[in-house]
Write a structure and sequence with these properties.
By secondary structure, the chain is of the alpha+beta class. The chain contains five helices and eight strands. The chain has three domains: about 120 residues; about 50 residues, no CATH class; about 70 residues. Strand 5 and strand 6 form a beta hairpin. Helix 4 runs antiparallel to helix 5. About 5% of the residues have low confidence.
Length: about 250
């Protein structure tokens, strides 16, 4: 979970410090103010696409801090020979990973292009989905037959090149089937967490009943407390879906 993101002199116009909420964060601004560039830098760092950063943007300092204690830092400085050097470091408390490198700015493509992380991300670029109908073949029959597949394959290639692992995915196109797949997978994970919570609750209640002797009132209070705590945990787990259901009219 990202705690904060700080950047200095991004493309010579953006400097800022941003703190993140655990559930929802909204970035607003006028067209052309740099929202997409900021999000792109953030995702390139989170996903491990470090070698692609300086191909598209310039900055003097960028750092992501995680609530678990890890951080990613990239600093651009000049040495005594007035040569620009990239100071790069990744520290991950959860995966016990630490990387520190110094690379000449002229060799920025040698920055790592991936690193192992337990966290995951889905990056939805700000451009809208390109629909079918942009075939370039002048032959009408071939255009009808291949244009949809060619477009999808091209978008899939972009996604594959930018997705660094099964945990970090660049979403180049989106369909109803994609949404159904993502939600189904997420709900399957949530269902498993709830199943474990309820199984643990049942074990605790049975243990209380088995050892209650004659203290029925005290045992009942303990059971009520367990159920209440369990309901609170289930609400936290289900919250993303509850928020969506309140926003969508079926």
């Amino acid at each position: 979970m990202i705690q904060s993101f700080e950047v200095k002199n991004l493309n010579n116009k953006i400097s800022g410090y941003y703190e993140f909420n655990e559930d929802l964060n909204i970035l607003t601004g006028k067209n052309g103010c740099g929202k997409t560039t900021l999000l792109k830098l953030l995702w390139f760092m989170v996903s491990g696409n470090f070698d692609k950063i300086f191909e598209e943007m310039y900055f003097e300092y960028a750092e992501i801090k995680y609530k678990e204690g890890g951080k990613i830092t990239i600093v651009l400085k000049e040495n005594e020979k007035q040569e620009k050097i990239i100071h790069f470091s990744v520290i991950s408390e959860r995966s016990e990973l630490e990387i520190k490198e110094e690379i000449p700015f002229s060799q920025f493509e040698n920055l790592p292009n991936s690193y192992n992380t337990r966290e995951g991300s889905l990056f939805f670029p700000t451009f809208r989905r390109i629909e079918g109908g942009f075939g370039v073949d002048s032959n009408t029959q071939n255009r009808r037959r291949f244009r949809r597949n060619q477009l999808r394959e091209a978008l899939d290639t972009i996604s594959d090149n930018l997705s660094t692992s099964s945990n970090h995915k660049f979403i180049a196109s989106l369909s109803t089937e994609d949404i159904d797949y993502l939600l189904s997978n997420k709900y399957a994970d949530i269902s498993e967490k709830i199943r474990k919570l309820e199984a643990n609750q049942s074990r605790n209640i049975l243990n209380i009943v088995a050892n209650s002797d004659t203290k029925e009132k005290e045992s009942l209070e303990r059971i009520r407390k367990i159920v209440k705590e369990n309901d609170g945990e289930k609400f936290k787990i289900l919250r993303p879906f509850l928020v969506l259901s309140n926003l969508i009219d079926f």
